[in-house]
Amino acid sequence: MNGIYRKSLARGLLAAAALVGFAAAAGAAPVSDPQLAKVVAQGKTLFTQSKFDGNGRVCQSCHLGGGLEPGRRPDGKPIPSLANAAAVFPRYKARAGRVFTLADQVRACIGGALEGKDPGEGSEEVTALVVYLTSLSQGKAIDMGGQPQ
């Protein structure tokens, strides 16, 4: 094994380990696939930093602790954590008169509470946020239509 290859491999392994550790620090079980861990990290960055050209809030403005703690909507109403969000979607939303997926809910929050620009269905941003939220629910029992915790 030549020196350049060894250094490149070492950097790659360190980066993968950092990403897996990042996912674990987010409250999720470690993600063994480095590419998936990278998307979890991107989702957490969006969750904690992206304003989506809105009113200055980020997802974490309402969903505290990276989504792992109960939070408050902009009107002050308490909301549960997102620790099992991926386990309770899809769910029927009576107000909308249809079934919402987790991606639909993410887009609704961006357009609603954040008053932001919708990244669009199937966008990289929505996908990364859904992957991040799913990482928070890893190990939770599926309870479609169940209550957020």
Report on this model:
This protein is mainly alpha-helical and 149 residues long. It has a single domain (3-136), classed as Cytochrome Bc1 Complex, Chain D, domain 2. It is built from 6 helices and 4 strands. The protein has helices at residues 3-25, 34-49, 59-62, 85-88, 102-111, 124-136, and strands spanning 71-72, 78-79, 91-93, 98-100. A two-stranded antiparallel ribbon has the order 1-2. The protein has a two-stranded antiparallel ribbon with strand order 3-4. The longest helix has 23 residues, at 3-25. It is globular and about 40 Å long. The N and C termini lie far apart (50 Å). The relative contact order is 0.17.
CATH-level-4 superfamily name: Cytochrome c-like domain
Return the CATH topology: Cytochrome Bc1 Complex, Chain D, domain 2
Tell me the number of structural domains: 1
SSE topology string: HHHEEHEEHH
The spatial strand order of the largest sheet comes to 1-2
Low-confidence stretches: 1-26
CATH C-level label: Mainly Alpha
- State which percent range the strand residues make up: 5-15%
Shape: globular
Task: Provide a count of the helices.
Answer: 6
Which CATH architecture would you pick? Orthogonal Bundle
What does this entry show, briefly?
With 149 residues, the protein is mostly helical.
